[in-house]
Specification:
The structure holds two protein chains of two kinds.
Chain A lengths: L3 E4 L2 E4 L5 E7 L6 E7 L6 E7 L5 E2 L8 E7 L2 E6 L8 E8 L9 E2 L3 E5 L1
Parallel strand pairs in A: 2-11
Antiparallel strand pairs in A: 1-3, 3-8, 4-5, 4-9, 5-6, 7-8, 9-10, 9-11
Chain B lengths: L3 E4 L2 E5 L4 E7 L6 E7 L6 E7 L4 E4 L2 E6 L4 E6 L8 E7 L9 E2 L3 E6 L1
Parallel strand pairs in B: 2-11
Antiparallel strand pairs in B: 1-3, 3-8, 4-5, 4-9, 6-7, 7-8, 9-10, 9-11
Classes of the chains: A mainly beta, B mainly beta.
């Protein structure tokens, strides 16, 4: 089946530093990657949508200069949280769509727990 | 944009009973409706999905129904087991929104032995 590998699974960083989260589609080509943020006991909120080779489309209220998304290849997308602050602490999850799954299918990564201290 | 409402927010049932979770959506262009199970600290796992051209789908103890006219869809779990305890999310997507999934707020299901 389709697998999306997300790393790291958790990270603790100091306020003001940057953190990169990677998502790789292991056995299919992810033409579209979605990035979500989930606060404790809340739902998944879409942050941005990226298509391979194109600039990401950000949802209203999401700072594109703070959350840098790169989708340079069909198997890798990265989310970089720049100048992280404690309020950026959250659970970040990627989701990929593509290949034979392009017809409605989505595969989620296992998530990254970011804690900014 | 799409707005997905999910009820109830919490649900407690006894082992062996059935559980029903309901969702409504606002965008008539939505055509794909998946249900996800999320355990603590993990990403969501697809448990069942339904497309707009189908009214009902069943997979063993799990079933989903869709009423396009009323814009609502429901998850039915029969013969619940303690390991069914988790948070369940419904979602909807449409091509006119780039196929992004819009999620409901989730239902915390507790199955007591």
């Amino acid at each position: 089946g389709a697998v999306v590998s997300q790393h790291p699974s958790w990270v603790i960083c100091k306020s003001g530093t940057s953190v990169k989260i990677e998502c790789r589609s292991l056995d299919f080509q992810a033409t579209t990657m979605f990035w979500y943020r989930q606060f404790p006991k809340q739902s998944l909120m879409l942050m941005a949508t990226s298509n391979e080779g194109s600039k990401a489309t950000y949802e209203q209220g999401v700072e594109k200069d703070k959350f840098l998304i790169n989708h340079a290849s069909l198997t890798l997308s990265t989310l970089t949280v720049t100048s992280a602050h404690p309020e950026d602490s959250s659970f970040y999850i990627c989701s990929a769509r593509g290949g034979r799954l392009a017809n409605y299918g989505y595969t989620f990564g296992s998530g990254t727990r970011l804690t900014v201290v | 944009g799409e707005n997905v409402e999910q009820h109830p927010s919490t649900l407690s049932v006894q082992e062996g009973d059935s559980a029903v979770i309901k969702c409504t959506y606002s965008d008539s262009a939505s055509n794909y409706f998946p249900w996800y199970k999320q355990e603590l600290g993990k990403g969501p796992q697809l448990i069942i999905d339904i497309r707009s051209n189908v009214g009902e789908k069943k997979d063993q103890r799990i079933a989903v129904t869709l009423n396009k006219t009323a814009k609502h869809f429901s998850l039915h779990i029969t013969e619940t087991q303690p390991e069914d305890s988790a948070v369940y999310f419904c979602a909807a997507s449409a091509s006119n929104s780039g196929y992004a999934l819009n999620f409901g707020k989730g239902t915390s299901l507790l199955v007591t032995p």
